[in-house]
Write a structure and sequence with these properties.
Length: 215
Amino acid sequence: MRALAGRFVVFDGPDGSGKSTQLREVMNAARRAGVIVCDVREPGGTVVSERIRQILLDASLPEMSVRCELMLYMASRAQLVSERIEPALRRGEFVLADRYVSSTLAYQGTAGGIDWEEVVRVAQAACGDRFPADLTVVFDVDQATAATRLNPLLDRMELKGAAFHERVRQGFLEQARTWPNRYAIIDARQPAETVTQAALDALRRHFAAPAEASR
């Protein structure tokens, strides 16, 4: 766990994947090991970003275009990187984020129809050197299982329907195939304790010291 100091890790996945629960478990494990953790959520995490979050998830705004979503998510992210992520990494803290650019690639990119290259260009402008993250852990779950885990009071993104969310899932899986060295896929259909252990194992494999990795 100490190897996580100064690292930037993202937990991501479809709505209902359980990633937020797993983030809390891993965050607590890191803190028990004496690692200082800066945990952030997207969209949100700062006063400015939380205001943007209210607009993005407002179910009364169904007319919002995908391109508008893209720009608002990136604006929220730019503030989060500047105000919280960048300072925490400079202090040597372990930054653990609930969603990041990977979500925009899946939701507004694969599912929304915006080309990945365009998403990446905007991400580079918004996040600078903090894109990409050191590791993105995707908690993969099929749409039918995910639907049983959602709060009945769905937000604007959750209301987009089964076909949309299946495209989102495929978007995450495609990212992992495209960038295997900085993504890990976890089967999130398993019991929560098993998923937590799998996430910890993924972190250990990715950040193990060379001598430890060779054992």
